Amino acid sequence: MEKIIAELLPKLEKENRFVLGLDGLSRSGKTTFTAELVRHLRERNFEAVALHLDDYIVERKRRYHTGEAEWFEYYGLQWDVEGLREHLFGRVGASGSLTLPKYESESDDHRMQQIVLPERGVVVIEGVFLQRGAWREYLDGVIYLDCPREVRFARESPATRQNTDKFVNRYWQAEDYYLAAEDPLSQADWIVKEYS
């Protein structure tokens, strides 16, 4: 963390707003890393805002039992890729605020969320598949959390690990596709190994 922050600081001082992506596959530690990174940045008097892609997934009927392969439902349908490109990624670098449909899991619906962005500072966008072609160009830098599948799977609850078919058919095939199609390790500016 300290090494990354030391390398980030000169970039942050040059930019009015720096858009930093935090990429990594499921259970790689993205949310925890983001919280720590934001805390460290604020301690150094940088304004920092974190956005979590999982807050902007679509309703269940649009991502389950659609007739598409399960892995594609996760990779290609879980988020409105083009909508997020237009309303989040395409605007986060220059707009003063964002208005986004935040997903509410209990109601399986959305409520509009207004996010005020710092004029100077860092916006950290955290999420899986973050370096897909539709989004990568809008990020000023990317940290990738590289964590082996067996370590990530062990972080799931025992009950969740029982449903191995869902991992095999949905999550792992989507992850394999992403790794092959986008090669996120080679695109990332910083790689963190096995963060916990």
TrEMBL record:
<dbReference type="Pfam" id="PF00485">
    <property type="entry name" value="PRK"/>
</dbReference>
<protein>
    <recommendedName>
        <fullName>Phosphoribulokinase/uridine kinase domain-containing protein</fullName>
    </recommendedName>
</protein>
<dbReference type="GO" id="GO:0005524">
    <property type="term" value="F:ATP binding"/>
</dbReference>
<dbReference type="InterPro" id="IPR006083">
    <property type="entry name" value="PRK/URK"/>
</dbReference>
<feature type="domain" description="Phosphoribulokinase/uridine kinase">
    <location>
        <begin position="19"/>
        <end position="155"/>
    </location>
</feature>
<dbReference type="GO" id="GO:0016301">
    <property type="term" value="F:kinase activity"/>
</dbReference>
<dbReference type="InterPro" id="IPR027417">
    <property type="entry name" value="P-loop_NTPase"/>
</dbReference>
